[in-house]
Every structure is written in structure tokens, then in C-alpha cells.
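step 4 of 6: structure.
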Amino acid sequence: MSTYKNFLDKKGESRWQKVWEKTKAFAAADKSAKPKYYCLIEFPYPSGEGLHVGHPRSNTALDILARKRRMEGYNVLYPIGFDAFGLPSENYAIKTGIHPAITTEKNIKTFTTQLKALGFSFDWDRVITTTDPKYYKWTQWIFLKMYEHGLAYKAKIPINWCLSCKIGLANEEVVSGKCERCGGEVEKREKEQWMLKITNYADRLIEDLETVDYLDRIKQQQINWIGRSEGAEIDFVVVTSNKRQVTSLKVFTTRPDTLFGATFMVISPEHELLRNPAFANASAGRQKSEIRNQEEVEDYIRQAKSKSDLERTELNKEKTGVELKGLKAVNPATQKEIPIFVADYVLTSYGTGAIMAVPAHDQRDWDFAQKYGLPVVEVIAGGNIKEKAYEEIAEGKLVNSGQFNDLPVKAAIAEITLWLVKQGLGKKAVNYKLRDWVFSRQRYWGEPIPMVYCENCKKTGAVKDPLTGEASGWVRVPEKNLPVKLPDVKKYEPTDNGESPLSVITDWVNTKCPVCGGSARRETDTMPNWAGSNWYFLRYVDPKNDKALAAEKKLAHFIPVDWYNGGMEHTTLHLLYSRFVYKFLYDIGAVPKSCGSEPYKKRTSHGLILGEGGEKMSKSKGNVVNPDEVVKKFGADTFRVYEMFMGPFDQAIPWDTKGVVGVRRFLDRVYMVVSKIADDLKKSEIGNQRSEKSRLIHRTIKKVSEDIETQNYNTAVSALMIQFNGIDSRPDWRPRLEEMKGEYQVDLAALENFLKLLAPFAPHLVEELWEKLGNKKSIFKAAWPKADENLAKAEEFELIIQINGKFRDKVKVRSDITEQQAEIVARQSEKIKKYLDGQTVKNIVFVPGKLINFVI
RNA sequence: GGGCGAGUGGUGAAAUGGUAUACACGCUGGACUUAAAAUCCAGUGGCUGAAUAAGCCAUGUGGGUUCGAUUCCCUCCUCGCCCACCA
């Protein structure tokens, strides 16, 4: 007899993979009378380590969905590609001198082989790679469009600079404030960088979450990340010691009600006031600064700069700062002069980089005031400000606040804001934690930013910045000249001054200005690795188009994505960025309006697969499970089913090689029993019974169908096991294996339905058995079974009899039993008689189909 | 400090107001075998008990709502993830 092991040994799985590939079994049609369904998983980064066991968890889940949808009659698009720009290939190139394109190509081959060996039903004709110039042509095109619409601009932004490697580091390369490669010190250096104005879309990115079906925690995380808060922007006049007004400071506050309690101000070390040559900066040509302790201040700024992010947060208990002597701010409410400090507990990246400090009602300001002996003025009654700041907002009334005394906090916020607006001292304002997106990298292995700098055009004013309308030297590379291809370089390290390695390729950098024809220089920064993944799901619908990022008709057919599954770690970056970019493309009409303003209808997340000990898998811990070995040892189907069975899909879960065995045993049994039935059918040795007597199968159909939709894959597999093994090892639709020696009967309808339900989980095995049963067409051309609700409901059930809510007995009764009948039946039970003897029944609770409860 | 989530057998876990521990691993015993592996069969939360009699106790802790709570509400404890001097 042929066993499952024989099937695997004879390369049965790869035989089916070849059949699917040859017949293009899973190709999506560009046009179809069928309704479309777009399943999407995050395309992998083709790392040198090969596929991780985490990838198949997401891939299998949506593969199951894709296969089910096809059987339900949808035109399914389930594509795959590679997000191939990235640091590991580049670092490998720095180490070995091997071009990242070569490494990438090799890795993609490995990934492709591995993915195919798992039998995912991807449409392999639509594979895309972000490093392909035909692809990144359109990534560059999107950048040009953003620039054209005033969404891209250059700004001075600090980058992480490793002092010993002399290169700029990506945030992910800075580990606990040190350089990841050499362990050396990292400091901040300012550099001009391309920025994208994602903040323009902040409100829409929050509001439109109401129109999509994302897991709640995903929505919540995005909302928190965007961090919208409402408050007021207030101007504080800054004066010198001889009362001359030199400038003013803008602050953002969510608590304008505490304005009368503002007893000092704090600005961040990066604040522009400190660079203002008009009065603050002694080194910029002026002999005398208005700040009398200029040197002390500059020392402090230098120190703050050299502090790593870690130090800045680690030391957050002890606040430091320096007063700007010679300058004072005027509290617009009290007209009192208050001191100004520079301190690094104020962040330059939030609000205006300056705060009005209200020590009585903000703990951080309170701490600072204690340390520097600053006055603490209570303006909201109810706390004990000698002990700590009183931050409560719900109760408490204003004091020491002039005309606003006795107002409750909430009313005071509105009243004081109104007063500020009337006086011309401030306005209502909204602030976001979300920052504009730094889109430049001084790296080789990324999409070149398609811009050219022309000094001449800036002088003549021939080119204007679309955002500011001012004359600019930045000229867009014309669309017809795209893509701007990455040139070959000899060295892949960033240069000593932090520029990209592209900057030393002079014959590439020096070019002609597309506007005036004069000499100009190319932008040498490249895009971050998010750039290609922003819009890749659009390219899948039309991967070979060279006229547009995708044809309108095809976009209209497939977009939006119906179900997108990916890692929780991408919730705030990739997911938010790609929603932003999609909205932009939608706004400019690159995506038809009929697609809607959100790219993903539904977003779910899978949990991490951990090592056997429950720790994150990593090479250094030596607990990495290699998927190839699992496939080799147990087969792809076992691997797939195990990953679905191991636990709740959205939870992190440790790998357990022992657990794989259980799944393998189950599939072994399925193979053995069904192929025996198939053989005996051919020999006509069994009674073919299509009575559909089995009620269990209808319950299983219902359960498995629902569980796939709700991602309870673990209980779906368990339902399949129960269906096959039967309750008490006596399935009602087939004999046990030892009873199959002679003549026996099988409910073939139940068997076929069982195979259809198992097919998305274990496609190779089921195709084989389906063929053995005499079917000529793939099981994935068959229709997904429907549960008969009446049959799914049992004719009889076990009525639970409770006394005071405690289980005491059960008895088999008809499903349509009434309360009166149930009571009679229950009272006949010997056990129940014992409990009810001599007791008064106060109440009877009857739940149809479930139980009867006597309250005594 | 903020946000989100979790705590159930030896283990992964199931049950979302109604028999707590489905399914699977592991373990124990049995069948088959010269033997082992594999496979098959049976058992398997704890306690009392000879018992497959009967009963009690058990879903992190303490309380509440309910005829009935793993499930809903409150207190506390522990763990995980994300964010974090966000004005």
C-alpha cells in the first residue's frame, strides 16, 4: 500500500507544484466576469539567510484564503515580489566588494525556490522586484509628482553620525546609542535632507480609519502614532535687559488655562532663537550677543548634541538647563517678565520647540523649578503643589488668574483661548506627534532621487519651488528621462563627509540642467527602503506596464486590496506611509476614483514565531528553525498545517518540533485511509454510499468556513481532525481502518467535502488524493462546500440538568424539546430526584438546545 | 509615565454568559515485533476513595453583577509588546 511517506519520497509535492505552474492554475485574470478578490501579504526582503519560518505563517494564512476564494468563484489576485533595496546587501557589498545586485539576484533565486517548495498559490507571472529599474522608474515618478505638488522639500535634519566609521547611520543601525557595526560613539550631525509632507495628510489618515476594517489595535496604534492634540499657540514677547523687544517665542500648549501660572520658559537646544544672528549668536559675525552668558549656553548646546538619544531619555529624571541671561519673556496674561532657559527636556521635534513652563501643573516643569529655585504659582485649586504638580483636568477651578478665577478647567481652556485670539496673542492650534518623513539616505543601494541642482536656474529664477513659490536650484529630471539608473561604483561606503557613495562618480553627478542646458549636479541621496514598498501592491495589477505605474482599467478592477496581512511591526511605518502615498496618488488621479481613498479594506496581523525556548529566533542564540529542513523531513503540507495549528494566529508563539509530529500523523492517516478507499473503489470492493447521513460533516463545513474568515486557523484544523478521526474514534461516515479489510461502506459525499475543506491547508496531499479518487480536474476548480444548516443542527442533544447552576446530570433529548417536556424529563433522573427531594423549587431556567436549571 | 494585550493541565491551547480543560504534544499501560522505531488501542487536571461508586476543589488575587462567570464590572499582582521628557 502506498503511504504518505512514499508520496513524499517520490517527490509528490513538487510534482503538483509543477502541474500548477505549467497550467498557470493560480494566475489572476486582468478582466473577468467573476468578482475580484485581492489577497496581499507583505513582500519579503530577500536576505542572505533565506526564508524564515515566520514568512510562511502569514503566507499560508492568506494562501488558504486565496484558495478558498477561488473555490468560491472569485477572480483571485495573490501576488508575490521582493523588496530588495536595503542595508544588509549593501553592508555585504562593503565587506566583500560584491555588487548588491548580484547578491540580490542570488537571494531572490533562493527565496523563489523556497516559496515554491511550500506550494503557495502565488501568481508567479506578476513577480516584481523593487530594485528593477523598470519598477523603480515609477517609484521615482511618484517622487517627482510629490515634488510637483509641494509635498517634497529639503530641510536641515540631524542624522546619526558614527565618529569612528565616519558614516551616517540609519536609525536601525544605532543600537543603544552606539554604532551597530563598530560599537563606537554616535552623535547627531545636521544635514540637508529630502522630506515628504506626510503631516498634510495627518487628519485624513486618522479620519479614514473609520472606513476600513483593521484590527482595533492597529487602528489605535496608528492614531497614537499620529498623536493629534488640540490646544493653543501663544506668542511670548522676548525683551532685553533694557526692555527692548528683540523677538517673540511661539509655544504650543494643550493647557492654555494654566497661562497665568507660566513662571518661566524653556526652549530646546536646537531652537532657532539660539541661532538668530540678530542678537543671539556671537560667533556669526557680531561681536556682542544679547545673551550675556553666551559661552555657557553654547557649551550646554554642544553637550546636548553629543548626548545620544539613549542618554537623553535615560537621564530623564535629572533635568538640566541653562538660563539665557540678559533675555526675558513677558507672560502675556500677567505682563510679568519671566526667565528663559535652554534645556534638553524640551524636544525640538514636537510643537514649536519651546514651552511655557507651568511648574504648578506639569510635573516636568515642577522638577525643573525645584532644581533651579523658580517660583511655582498655583492657578488651579485642588492639589498640593508643595508636594508635586497638580495635573488633574476633570475637577478644580482657576485661582490667581485674574478675570478667569473660579472657572472650571474645561471652560477656562475655551475662554482663555478666545481671549488670546481677541487680543491677537495667539490662536487655536492642532499639533501632531507625527513628523514629516525624512526621505533621504546617504547610501548606495536605493533608488536615486531624480533631481538635479542647477546654480544658474536659481540665479535667473527660471525654476520655482512648487511649495514656496521662490526661485530654486532644484530641477526635476523630466519624466521621459526616467529611470535615473544607479551607476556602478567601486566603493560602497558613504564618503568621509557623509555623502552618498554616488557623490564621487563625477561623470554621473555632473550633468546638464534639463531646463537651461547648463552644467548641473545630480542629487546623490537615495530613497529609504520604504520607498519601493509604498505602492508595490498597485504594480502587481499591471507589473509590465511602461507607460504608467499601472493601467487605469486594471487598477479599477483590482484595487483596493481586499485583505492585507502583515507584521505588527509595520503598523506605524510601512502601513501609514503606504496609506499616505496611496491617498496622494488617488488625489492626483493616478489611481481612479472608483478605487476609493483607502488602499487596504482589511488589515490583520500575525504573531511572531519564537524559538523553542520562547525567545526571539536569532542566529546568535542558535535557535533558528530552517524551513527547508522542516519541509524535507515532514513535507510542505505538514509544515503549513502545523503553522496554522500551533496556536492563535495573532499571538507570538514558540516553535515546537515535537508538535509538528501530531500534524504529520494526522496527514499520514488521511493519506492512508483515503488512498485505500480510492483503490477499493477502483476494484469496486466497497459499497458507495452517498446518503449524506453524516451530520458531522455539515458542522465541520460551517466551522472550517467560518474559522478561515475569522483567522481561527488552529480551531479549523482541530475541526478537520475531529471530522476525520470522528468522535470517540468512530467517524459516522467511514469505517475505522481495521474494518476496511473486507467490504465496507463510505459516505463519499462527506469524504469529498472533507477533502475540499482540507485542500487549502494541505494542497499537495489533497490534489493527489483527489486524483486517486478519479477526478480529472484540480480540486481547486471544485466549488467550496456549503453547510446545510438543518443537518448541521443535531436532531438530538444532551440536555444539561443543573441544580443552582451546577452541573448534575445530562440526558439525551430531541432538539425541539419544550420547557415543560424538559422539566418532566429532568425530574425523572434519579440523581436529580435526590437533589430535589424535600426542596422547594423557586425558579426554573430553561435555555432551548442547552440546559435546564432548577433553583432551590 | 502612556497605550494595547495576556495570565486555564506537565506543554501548545479550546470554550466570549450555560457540562471548564475540545484538538494536539508529552506521559502511562496494552497490542504488534526476536528487539527497537513506526503504527494501532486504552488511560491521563488535583484531592478523598478499592472503584470505570460517590463527592469535593480548581481558569493569577480579592470582591461584585447573575439562577449560572474562564467569559461582564471593580481592586490588586505578574508577564509580554509598542510608544515614551509629546508641553
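step 5 of 6: annotate
 - The mean pLDDT of chain A is 89.
 - The longest helix of chain A spans residues 657-682.
step 6 of 6: archive
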